[in-house]
Design goal:
two-stranded parallel sheet; single chain; 13 helices; TIM Barrel; 371 residues; alpha/beta; globular; seven-stranded mixed sheet; DNA polymerase, domain 1
Length: 371
């Protein structure tokens, strides 16, 4: 296969990793450009958007992650690129302003450090050629501290996928990786290397959960992400819905009664819950869950919280503070800033129509506010 054909295969296979894009806004959903399949419009951990050159270095893998279509023994078109080939192709696109950054991952084709060496060498080639732009590097589970430190030194952002909210669930996904040694301990190392006041504090750290492949509940994931944000200082957490048929037959997700559509909606609800925690001041224990420990697939978590707390309402649009406004279904940050600006200018808001065109989302607020 020539370089372009290999790149097309490896870029297609990189779609399973979402740790540079999410789905909390309309422009954040997973997508690719129509012509060059390895150019992805994404939202970065700091909230900015750009086009990234997103690919794997190799899809040859020795690991048996049961949810992954690229696991050892699975039927896939296997190929690899050298660091030199990848760097050259990236720079061709960068120099004509087709992309502004690189997202680079890889399957584990031999041992973790050998794979990390190739990932890091690609970034090192680009940095030595004076590329100072955005590089997101995937940290391979089981990599040495030295390899991780080099990645952090070269990258704008790094990510190591946690995959599951605890060792019990992780064991359902993989027998070749150790949860504490290969995932939790390196996540802690990255957190220390990128902590406030450290040499690499500018580097962002993200991770990703696989949703529905094991027997985990949304409660498990939400409790885990709360600790990751509060204790490990992660910048973003992403969620990837397991799609039935992609993994091994003995995977719990293959026996689940949830449809692929249910799992995609569950992924979406987790993004909404994550947004409430990061942006709206909700605690993990405030996120409303159904009896089985999962988020409602019918109602978004903010609306569910409002339904469960009628004593909190109504909220006075002209008098109540930002924190109370943030609890109102249908009122997002943009609308709330508009409300506060109108109030500061002396304008008395009389109805939702004063806030702009009444959308389906904004209409949710009518039962929870007074003027």
């Amino acid at each position: 296969m020539d370089t372009t054909e290999r790149l097309e295969i490896l870029s297609q296979d990189s779609r399973y990793d979402l740790a540079c894009a999410c789905a909390t806004r309309d422009d954040e959903h997973r997508r690719r450009s129509g012509d060059d399949k390895w150019i992805y419009p994404v939202v970065l951990p700091n909230g900015g958007s750009t086009y990234l050159f997103k690919t794997l270095l190799s899809n040859v893998c020795i690991n048996n992650c049961k949810y992954c279509p690229l696991r050892a023994g699975a039927d896939a078109r296997r190929c690899s690129l050298s660091p030199e080939e990848l760097a050259r192709m990236f720079l061709e696109y960068y120099r004509v302003r087709r992309v502004s950054g690189l997202f680079l991952s890889s399957a584990v084709s031999d041992d973790p450090d050998a794979t990390m060496e190739r990932i890091n060498r690609t970034a090192l080639i680009l940095r030595r050629l004076h590329f100072r732009g955005y590089i997101h590097l995937k940290v391979i589970p089981g990599a040495s501290d030295a390899a991780i430190r080099q990645s952090v030194a070269l990258a704008s952002a790094v990510s190591l996928n946690i995959e599951a909210p605890g060792e019990e669930y992780f064991k359902q996904l993989s027998t070749t990786k150790n949860y504490v040694r290969d995932i939790i301990r390196p996540l802690g190392l990255i957190s220390r290397l990128t902590a406030k006041g450290s040499v690499f504090n500018r580097v962002k750290q993200t991770t990703q959960f696989v949703v529905g492949a094991s027997l985990e509940t949304d409660r498990d994931i939400i409790q885990s992400l709360w600790k990751l944000y509060r204790e490990a200082g992660l910048d973003r957490i992403y969620f990837s819905a397991y799609q039935r048929g992609a993994g091994a037959a003995d995977l719990p997700g293959e026996r689940s009664r949830a449809t692929n559509g249910d799992l995609l909606m569950r992924e979406h609800r987790l993004y909404q819950a994550d947004w409430l925690i990061r942006k709206y001041g909700f605690r993990a224990d405030e996120i409303p869950l159904e009896a089985g420990g999962n988020l409602s697939l019918t109602f978004d978590p903010k609306e569910m919280w409002a339904r469960m707390h009628p004593e909190f309402f109504p909220v006075n649009v002209n008098r109540d503070d930002r924190d109370r406004l943030l609890r109102v279904p249908g009122l997002g940050q943009v609308i709330i800033e508009r409300i506060l600006a109108a109030r500061n200018s002396g304008f008395h808001i009389r109805s939702l129509a004063d806030l702009g065109k009444e959308t389906k989302v904004l209409a949710k607020a009518k039962d929870y506010v007074i003027f």
